[in-house]
Amino acid sequence: MTTEEFSPPRLSLIRLFLRFLRFGVLAFGGPVAQIAMVKQALVEEERWISPARFNRLLAVMQVLPGPEAHELCVHLGMIARGRIGGLLAGFGFMLPGFLLMLAVAWLYRDWIAGSPAMAPVFVGAQIVVLAIIARAVQRIGTHILEDGLLWLIAAAALAATLVGAAFWIPLVAGGLVYAFARHRVATIATVIAAVGLAVLLPTTDTAPTTAASLGDASTLALFIAGLKGGLLTFGGAYTAIPYVRADTVERGWISDASFLDGVALAGMLPAPLVIFATLVGYVAGGLPGALAITAGMFLPAFAFSMIFFERLEAVVENPALHRLLGGVAAAVVGVIAATWLQIGASTAGRVSDSAAAAMLFLAALVVVWRVKGSFVAPALVVAGGLAGWAMTP
Q1: Is the Cβ–Cβ distance between 243 and 225 less than 8 Å?
Q2: Looking at the structure, do residues 357 and 215 belong to the same domain, yes or no?
Q3: Where are the alpha helices (DSSP H) in 8-50?
Q4: 181 and 57, same structural domain?
Q5: Is the dihedral of CA 67, 73, 77, 79 positive or negative?
Q6: Could you identify which of 33, 203, 216, 342 might form a hypothetical disulfide with 29, taking C-beta atoms 3.0 to 4.6 angstroms apart as the criterion?
Q7: Mean pLDDT over each residue of the chain, to the nearest integer
Q8: DSSP assignment, residue 236?
Q9: Do both 163 and 196 map to the same domain?
């Protein structure tokens, strides 16, 4: 009986980069399609690693924050050529989507945004994106909210976000409450401390979004906004939305409409969905802002694999860490739901025909609920834009 051997071929660094660059060019359809493409090529056809090891690696990446497909590429690049291989694989995978989004952001900010003729098209697309986000929240919640306590943590995080509590309070409280759920005194103390902090600390810094305030963001602030989103991306790229929005829209650097446009356009490109941050950074701070927020967003995806390469699987097997991350993830679900309500209210204020907008939203919701496929979201965004144009009086 022979033992199957799995190992990557001997590739030069240039060939390794080009291999993952090709994956980036073909990375349509979101993380499920991206992961399936990489698995088919590198595991099933070229046998870089065994299917069992790939599945364990995928489980680790799903627990950690960051876009799973990108993290997998970094990790596989490291298996092939060490840390420099991981760096090149990660850059190769993200580069096509980043360059495309950068071009889209330039066209959007300098030629499209503010055009009266295009406004109804983007409103239609934004309504559809709200339906897509609603479905994403439901999917994420199904995987994360496994018991009553996790549901309670999500509900508390939703309420805390709506009243303007600092972003980290529900996350820390949710993680600690679930980690120490069997210790009643510690749980009660955590809840009391969280409520006290929410009441005593100033609420989220907000500023009215006016045309005059757009585009004056600092490069460092945008890097931190991206880093926050990258570190808190649990269960899918949609979980980055509330944190990037809090640090950009709520500071008056970009409008809710443009923010949603970025999410819509990102869903149509061959890239992880978090590439929407590039457009947000470009609108808020030009090319330096786009580079800074993108670097912050993707830095954790590189760092977790490249720094903790040898220890990732062992660390994630720790049951205590599982409960802590489970509580944090439940709080994130509540934060996303609250952000969805806030963005929905903002979008409703830009709608001229409420009945038609409601019908479009419900139709999009039915489609995302019942139809599966990698091109459902891009097709819906296009259809939403056409519907918005058709509804123009």
Answers
A1: yes
A2: yes
A3: 13-25, 30-38
A4: no
A5: positive
A6: 33
A7: 84
A8: S
A9: yes
